Amino acid sequence: MLCFLRGMALIPFLLVTWSSAAFIISYVVAVLSGHVNPFLPYISDTGTTPPESGIFGFMINFSAFLSAATMYTRYKIVEKQNQTSDFSTPVFNLVSLVLGLVGCIGLGIVANFQELTVPVVHDGGALLAFVCGVVYTLLQSIISYKSCPQWNSLSTCRIRMAISAVSSAAIIPMIACASLISVTKLEWNPKEKDYVYHVVSAICEWTVAFGFIFYFLTFIYDFQFNGEA
Fold first, then answer.
1. What kind and span of H or E run contains 126?
2. In a domain, 1, yes or no
3. For residue range 109-142, what is the model confidence (pLDDT) as tens digits?
4. How many domains does the chain have?
5. DSSP assignment, residue 32?
6. Structural domain that includes position 177
């Protein structure tokens, strides 16, 4: 079944499938338990109340580990490619890795500190995860263009940059609208004054989150060859 995953491709494949499952399972359990409104809850809302909080925490912790493993493997692949064709400065690749790992730490904080229990810590972790994650995808997209066409096809570069652009555009209203919400809660009424801010920020949050998933999906092909032409 997984025979097409040559080299290190299993790592991003696991990351994509596991993280997708984490979001979907937590959402389904939270909705079926009546803990959140089915229409656009925050991702963290689906992991706040038991039993979904345990599922969310466990699965997102492992997603953070898989993300770190994927980023480090990507760093080593680019490093090996760069030794052959010298298309980018090593520092650029290193900065991308460091920012990505900081984002993984933020993801771990989100998994272990629920938004209603310690909202300041949770929100700080989410900010780290999203901001560092978006910057990571932007830097990796630039590296991809620099290594094109020897190591990446032009279509792959365009897909990565498009995902990065959408995520960058979404993260600004996500943060802005979330900062305008006066209270942290799970249940929302459309007549409440902050409801529009909640809907906009939730849409942007889900957009950025699945943007990360689709971005890492583009790594699977690269990882099959481990930096070999």
1. helix 119-146
2. no
3. 999 998 888 999 999 999 999 999 999 999 999 9
4. 1
5. H
6. 9-223
